[in-house]
TrEMBL record:
CDD domains (alphabetical): HTH_ARSR
Organism lineage: Bacteria, Pseudomonadati, Pseudomonadota, Alphaproteobacteria, Hyphomicrobiales
Protein name as it appears in the record: Transcriptional regulator, AsnC family
Assigned GO CC terms: cytosol
Gene Ontology molecular function terms on file: sequence-specific DNA binding
Length: 158
């Protein structure tokens, strides 16, 4: 059974999404409760899987990954085992930053980063030759308009 998230929990989530390195004392002050119950709430949100983890957001371009592209993959077979095998293979490719299984004509879309076009082209050759891959279409990104690694909070869905 999933517990109801109240206004304090929403405020905790909003604050942590904005700054995952905030101290519990500062967090408790911002959400208007004392530190011990704030920490209990954060731990409960973590244990329930609502808070999946914490990480640093890195600038790929400053680390030498100047190329970002999407690869749309169409598989030969969409049997459960084949889908799972492809998803497992994706985990082993370091240039794939994110992957989604889709409905419709494309089975998977991969967000990829690479230091240059040649590296990405070599990856596409490997991807195209992977078991069960029928075809791959790629699109190089030109400019990113939005990069919000956040979930809309209550009342922010518009």
């Amino acid at each position: 059974m999933v517990r109801r998230i109240d206004a304090i929990d929403w405020n905790i989530l909003r604050e942590l999404q904005g700054d995952g390195r905030i101290t519990n004392v500062e967090l408790s002050q911002r959400v208007g409760i004392s530190a011990p119950p704030c920490l209990r709430r954060v731990r409960a949100l973590e244990e329930e899987g609502i808070i999946k983890g914490y990480r640093a957001l890195l600038d790929e371009k400053k680390l030498g990954f100047d190329l970002m592209a999407f690869a749309m993959v169409h598989l030969i077979s969409q049997a459960e085992g084949d889908l799972s095998a492809f998803a497992a293979q994706v985990e082993r490719w370091p240039l794939v930053r994110a992957c989604w299984m889709l409905s419709g004509e494309t089975d998977f879309i991969l967000l990829c980063v690479a230091p240059d076009l040649r590296t990405f082209q070599n990856f596409v050759l490997e991807l195209t030759g992977a078991p069960n891959v029928r075809n791959v279409k790629t699109a190089l990104t030109l400019q990113q308009s939005k990069d919000a690694a956040v979930v809309p909070m209550e009342g922010e869905t518009r």
